[in-house]
Amino acid sequence: MPLPLIKMPFNLPSKGSSSTSPRGSATSLSANTLPAGPVTPADVLKFKKATPDFLVPFTASPPVQFLEFSIKDKASGRVFFETKRPGSHSDYVPLKDMDVPPGVDPNLFRSVHYDFGHDFLDCREVGTTLVFAVGAKPITNFRMIERHYVGDTLIKSFDFTFGFCIPNSVNTWESIYEVPALDKKLKKEMLANPHATKADSFYFVDGVLVMHNKASFEFSSPPSGK
To answer: What is the pTM of this model?
Structure first.
C-alpha cells in the first residue's frame, strides 16, 4: 500500500570521511571470513575485498526505498549517470514485494554495472545525489559505508552519515567523493579489466545492517573516430 510521503523542502549534505588503502596492504578481515554474528560497521571497515555474496537477505524489508540517483563531476557539472523510478514517489514497491520473473536472479535488482567512460578517472571530486523515501518509523543514525576495490585490493573507503529522518518523508542525500590519486599502472589495469573495479555499499540504522548493494565499473574509451 502506498505510503503518505512528505517532501523535504531542503537538501541535507552528508557528513563523512574517507580513507585510502595502499595497494598490497595487509588484510585484517577477509571477505571470505565473515563474522559469525550480525555484521557491524566495524566489521565492514575491515573488509579488504568485495564480499562473495550479499550480507542482507533479499526478502528483508529495508526501512528506506531509493527513488532517484545521480552521479556528476563536481568541477564541470557533467552528469555521468542518473536514474529515476517511474511514477510518483508514493508508488514504489519494496524489493521483497517485487514480482521477479522465473529464472531471474533477484539480486540483479540490487546490483548495478556502470560504464562512466575513460575520462571519469581524471575527475578529482564526484558528487552524488540520492533521493530516498522513509517508511512509517523514524530513522536515526542512517549511515552508509562504501568500499571500493580493484580486484582484491581496497583502493578507497567512504563513510557517510545522514542522521535523523522523519517518518513518511522523502529526503535528498548529497555526498562528495574525493577520487583517489591513481598511478598509471593502476589506471591501465582499471581500463583494461571491465568489472574488476567493484564496490560494496553497506547501509546501517543505529549500527544494524539493513541494506547491502553491489556495483561494478568499467571505463571504456569512445569508439575510434569520435
So the answer is: 0.78
